[in-house]
Hints:
By secondary structure, the protein is of the alpha+beta class. Helices cover about 30% and strands about 20% of the residues. The strands form 5 sheets. Strands 4, 5, 6, 7, 8, 9, 10 and 11 form an 8-stranded mixed β-sheet that branches. A 3-stranded antiparallel β-sheet has the order 1-3-2. Bound molecules: zinc ion.
Amino acid sequence: MHQPVALVWAAQRAARGEPRVAHWREARASISEIISALGSGVDDDAAVLQVLRLKQSPLVDFQFAGTTQAGAESARWLDQQDPLLGLTDEAYHLLSERENFDEFARLAVKGLTSQQSLVILEYFNVFSGFGEVPGVPVGAVFKDRASLVEHRVHINTQWGIIGTRDRGAESVVVSGGYEDDKDYGDLIIYTGHGGRDQDTGKQVDHQSFDARGNAALVTSHVTGVPVRVIRGADAKRKNSHAPSYGYRYDGLFQVESFWQGPGQSGFRVCCYRLVKVSESTAGWDVVTDVASLPSGNVEPGRTRVTRSQIRRARALSLAVKELHDYRCQICDARLTIKGLGYAQGAHIRPVGQPHSGTDTPDNLLCLCPNCHVLFDNGEIVVNDDLTIVSSQPNRGLLRTSHDHVINLDHLRYHRDLFR
Ligand SMILES: [Zn+2]
């Protein structure tokens, strides 16, 4: 899953003003460090694979003689040759400017699956298209759709929903004139696209969850990554929450649920319940694991974390779930919603006061919602030998992976909470 890590490593060198190329032996440690921080234990083999894959990138200068070796030989081959690797001259110079770094990182992860690229970009604090746009505060007003595009707030002048089924939705524009939209301020019932007459905006056919934007909003619900909401001026002045002029960025909203129902016209429309993410907790609220922690006092911990910590926590949770392919480590269930894997990242030792659990892979489990609730409430605990203790006998062992090792101290702390 870490295919672009080595590329981002190379890009980071340029952004930091470090020399363009480095020898493999130097690169190995840094790349392993990044992989480890993203949730899979330190693993030299993984770094080897990353580097060998770089050869295929047109952005990379990989200086070596002869042919590379496959499989187990590749590590030895790299150690012997100790080739120089880094970005091409052109890419390196492009990246000497920090603002180009963001642009570059987005290009670098293009073509990867959504979750993979999100993990990478969030980890490096690069604007991924999702979440807040750097430098654009809530309440910012733009004169027209072109200006929204220019500021990367909503990157298409025609579409109401930016996003794809694979990546989820980045942003939506709520504009007056859609008969089934309902705007209550911090709650919006947003309807999807399709089936409308282009001239009148009236519904003349059914909508489908297969349509690009509608599918994207379903994905946003499943992943829990919030969506930017932009309200457009309502010429008919029917919506009191709409701005009087232009388009206003109104913050991040969570897609809390979706359904299909009859619209005013009688056709079936795709509906989404969008709920505003409070500004002080933006970020945490999209980490599914925090919402269902047993204690109600995670708040003190929230206010102290920085935005970058929040992003890392989210990236970490995604990485752990990806590593387990969304399969529950306790009961092995793999849930899917419209074909997308769904699981929750569960802290073993709870984060926040008074427990102060850490946001590290060794304190995170990938669980189904049932097991998450049972675990958080002490109905399931795990022994040092990884046997699962619950009211149901013979649950077997907690499934782990050599890339994801659990800290036994955290399991012990969790057991002690419910002794
Ligand atoms: Zn489970």
